[in-house]
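In this supplementary section we document a worked example of the pipeline. Step one takes a protein sequence of length 283 as its only input; no multiple sequence alignment statistics are reported here. Step two produces a three-dimensional model, which step three serialises into structure tokens for compact storage. The input and output of this example are shown verbatim.
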Amino acid sequence: MAESLGQNQEQGFLGHLLELRDRLLRSVLAVLLVFLCAFPFANEIYEILALPVVNQLPDGSSMIATGVISPFLTPLKLAFIMSIFAAIPYLMFEAWAFVAPGLYKHEKKLALPLIVSSALLFYVGIVFAYFVVLPNVFAFMMAYALEGVNHSPDITYYLDFILKLFFAFGIAFEVPIATILLVLGGVTTPDSLAEKRPYIIVGAFIFGMLLTPPDIISQTMLAIPMWILFEVGLLFSRLLKKRKDSSDDEADEANDDYENLSEDEMDAELDRIESEEKNGPIL
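The serialised model returned by step three reads:
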């Protein structure tokens, strides 16, 4: 008996490993497919991403490449990274599909909206960084640049800079999702988070200081949205917490009602539920 149980557990574990392997392979293939589509347009994509700094360069200045093969490798690297960013919804779907069988029905209903919201917020963070943060950061830097210095950014360093900024803002915009998950997971409560608001605001500015260029503009433009998004996440976590508590109260009331039933009444109720599941509600 114990041996049979051990074999079933081993087969179940191997089955999970095989499923994980298949989903990882599909994820890699999805990224490669997007990369193959993006690679022919790698130079055009880089030119678009370079507009925030190019528009701020003095007349006669341009970006440079200090490496021998940088003009080829840099757009290639950009196309690959952007392929990963573009495939994030599918990657998150594969992750959700892997863990979904182990979730309860109410957890599945909540998980899918959170995954979709998480992907959208990540993209919103990147768009915010590109259209709002980068133009202001480079305008600030150029305004205080040394006179007589020919400012010609290297294409490789610029790519590393913007990818770091995109990642920072993409992660920062996940604050509402993290807040909701912490509350629903029972790690903390909305009231506890509200009491820690001053520390969270200070932490947002420290996070901005570590992940953005050393200027007050980009740090503030990361910290303030994080604070606002924390307040949004706090609001939604309160609403979801109330909804969860009300559902739990209804479930407790239903359990109390069932506890008061006799054994014969309980059997009749179970037969009615099974009949409704097979044939629909009895009118």
